[in-house]
Amino acid sequence: MAPYAQRRAASPMASRLRNQRAATLWLLSALSAVPGPDPGMAGIEAATGGASRWRLPKLWSRRRAVVSTPEKLQPLQEPMDTSAVSLPLDDAEAIVSCAGAGIFVFWQLGALKYISTHFDLSNVTLHGGSAGAVLSTFIASGVDLNHAVRVSYDIGMEARVWDKWNHFGLFGPLIRQWLEILLPPDAHIRCTNRIRILLTRVPGFRQQYVSQFASREELIDAVMASVHVPFFLNWKPLKSFRGAYYMDGTLDDFVSGENSPILGCNGKAFIVDYYEDPKLTFNRLDFLRLKTHKQVLHLVAYGHRYARDLDMNGGLDPCLKDLRVVPSGETARTQTHVRSEVKA
User: Fold this and answer.
1) 270-272 and 95-98 as β-strands: parallel, antiparallel, unpaired?
2) Catalytic residue list
3) What domains sit in the chain, N to C, each tagged with a CATH number?
């Protein structure tokens, strides 16, 4: 399989995606009162077929320089004993990172269903940003992923989301309800110093992570800050957390097209990223578009299939081989279960 960057560059949609990222960067620059686009560079370069070019705000450029060196990244100031401060990013024996996904969180869920069946993740360090923060929290808290899909269906039916064409302001309360229902009372204890939730601080767009939680409510607040797509979730541009303002934790990844160093951990982490699945066809902005519940179940099955195929080709062994509990060939029972859910 070709490297991620090469596949993106070769994609026929690459120019369109670059334009989308440039426009997104300009919008977010305006929201945080940093310098906007350079008028002299704003047009589409029709002659060369290139994407629109926008002048990067100084704050953005400075933050990118910090993110490019993982050893300089610092966790948010923790409200707990300083003796429990987070360890360096690459300290763990095994790391599983969940990238931003939006509605493709269900693809991630399917992939993690396979991985958690075939590997012991009980002591794995989990990194997650945006929708990936939800899945990382579920895994660390011991949430049954099949039950999570069923609960999402119940919540969706109650809110009649499948009948609505406009979903702005809808998903924020529903995601919080999903977390409130599924997370156990001691979720914050299980997650402290085991997961790292990515946040993007505003102003400055500085990517940070938080790994300690004083209560279950604070854990949920951290996840909600990480998933906060401006305006889309609850009509608000930013999410307040611990006295500061944040937005989607994988904003930088969306704009740059690459997973952040916090997720990659110098190549040590296995990253669960729907964009790595060559059999999925989508527009990058599809992550905000709601699917029918049948499509949601298909996403679960696609994620499971991707992880299975990757495992059969040895793709999971470099990061997780010491944690294997089920041989890669023994997949029929689990895959049949996923297919039965789709048919139902």
Assistant:
1) parallel
2) 130, 248
3) 1-55 (no CATH), 57-76+92-343 (3.40.1090)
